[in-house]
Amino acid sequence: MRRKLVVGNWKLNGNLARNKALLGEVRVGGFVEGVDIAVCPPFPYLQQAGDVLSGSGVLLGAQDVSAYQEGAYTGEVSGPMLVDLGCSYAIVGHSERRSLFGETDSRVASKVGAALAAGLTPIVCVGESHSQREHGEAEQVVAAQLESIVAAIDIKLLDRLVVAYEPVWAIGTGLTATPEQAQSMHVFIRRCLGRSGVDSDGVRILYGGSVNAGNAVQLFNEKDIDGALVGGASLVFDGFKAICEAASKASL
Ligand code: PEP
């Protein structure tokens, strides 16, 4: 059975004082039985988060990772640097990076390769826009996003991947895919990976898109929803904790 994973993506939020309060709550109450939990603060606060969360069982992740290891790449943060700071995970190819910062499928694939080479677990985000879903293209779009990764990286490494299915129309909008819509796409993603030769049974596929305390239980009860990538609701401890507890309950 795949162990559930709940990841908080803080995006561009926080400051030292606010983080101290939230991380303190996560440290004391964030650990729940049977679930892996991680938080992904902005780069400058990884050290702070690592210090506060050390020994708590809550893991650390980054919101992005460079495709490069080191050298003349101003502004980049490499996989080995993130490992140095105690990160276990790196989100790669979030739709905000794809749409606002021009990340292409091939750049995302390079970042996945760099994360794996550094010993990080990449959390690769895939998902369709609203109009792509309306036009019946959702599976085709997600398949192409996965294909570029599968084509670029040694298949044997890809069972270490975490995939986050994040329909773009559900991110930060309050709209959530129904559990049935999400489950159906998760099965499709697992099948795509399997067909490409990835040992996909153990690959965790998270759902992301307006997950909150009210909808988490139903989502986690679906067989192929192995956890969540949580944006807005990860910034308020009670909401994040409720999502983690829902994941724990669904694992029993
Ligand atoms: C995200 O940023 O990955 C996300 C899913 O955001 P939200 O939960 O706010 O929709």
Written description of the protein model:
The protein is an alpha/beta fold and 252 residues long. The protein is built from 10 helices and 8 strands. It has a single domain (4-236), classed as Alpha-Beta Barrel (TIM Barrel). Strands 1-2-3-4-5-6-7-8 form an 8-stranded parallel β-barrel, surrounded by 5 helices. The termini are close together. The mean pLDDT is 96. Bound molecules: phosphoenolpyruvate (PEP). Phosphoenolpyruvate (PEP) binds next to strand 8.
**Major sheet: size, sense and barrel closure?**
8 strands, parallel, barrel
Number of helices: 10
Small-molecule binders: phosphoenolpyruvate
How many structural domains can be distinguished in the coordinates?
1
Percent helix among the residues? 40-55%
Oligomer: single chain
- Tell me which CATH architecture applies here: Alpha-Beta Barrel
Low-confidence stretches: none
Fourth-level CATH superfamily: Aldolase class I
Highest-level CATH class: Alpha Beta
Number of strands: 8
**Strand order, largest beta sheet:** 1-2-3-4-5-6-7-8
Which value, in Å, is the CA radius of gyration?
17 Å
Secondary-structure-based class equals alpha/beta
Strand content bin = 15-25%
What string, H for helix and E for strand, traces the elements in order? EHEHEHEHHEHHEHEHEH
Query: What is the CATH topology descriptor?
Result: TIM Barrel
Question: What would the keywords be for this entry?
Answer:
10 helices, TIM Barrel, alpha/beta
